[in-house]
Hints:
- This protein is of the alpha/beta class.
- The protein has one domain: Rossmann fold, CATH 3.40.50.620.
- 28% of the residues lie in helices and 26% in strands.
- The protein is built from six helices and 13 strands.
- A hairpin with a 5-residue loop joins strand 9 (154-163) and strand 10 (169-175).
- Helix 2 packs antiparallel against helix 5 and helix 3 crosses helix 4 (141-148).
Amino acid sequence: MPSYHIVVCGSLVPDPLQTLEPISTPTGPALKNEMMLPAMLDPWAGHALFEAANLAKQHPGSKVWLVALGPKAKLQQVLMTIAQKVPFELVALDGPASGFAESAEVAAALAGAINGITGLDKTRLLLFGGWESASRGTGTTMQMVGEHLGIVDQFQGVDQLTVRSDGSFDILERVEGGKHQVSACAGAPALLGWATGNLPEPANNPQVGMLNMRTAMPALQRAKPIKVTNDGVAFAGVSLPRQRRDTRIVKDLTPDAVAREIVEWITRD
Length: 269
């Protein structure tokens, strides 16, 4: 049975229950009181991490790394909760986790950190991450990390990974129209950008948390400072989405008539 070296790329995002207000600063767009907002692991990256841990558990000899870019103080805050979920080894980068950070620079920094992992066998490498991001919704970061690492077998919108006995695997990918396609891959190395997957969030395990924190705290202390300059990127402005609500109460409309009115309202502007 094959074993894998699984690297999960994931960063922190502000808790979505908080009010997020974009502002302009001398260094570019930011969120108001961003450093004061409670943070959490990006939900998309969280699914990737849980899938990685589940795969490693099924294949003895496998190992999971979490490569995270963010302010050290915030990473430590998030680790206090995520470290109790599944076993992994942390590779920390001290830098901005803003949704306004240019994904090309973020990808280059993540790829550099992955290349520096001691003992990483790239012939057994599975690179996991979020298909999208709660802060970087471009869906481009993971693709560029894979390109930096020379991984050409890339799959996005993954909901399921099934490994065969010969080391090849079938991948269930989301496509348009609420459908899935099944892709086949001969084996590692490969990149998988996860959607929501099929696994529930693991329960907290204090013993797993203590084991993880033994290596996580030294990793945070050794975190390499990363500067994301956004060179060549200009923002014309940042603002909250405009809120609109037009409510009418009408009885006895057919579903087709309701649908037509919704389409007309959406396309009015």
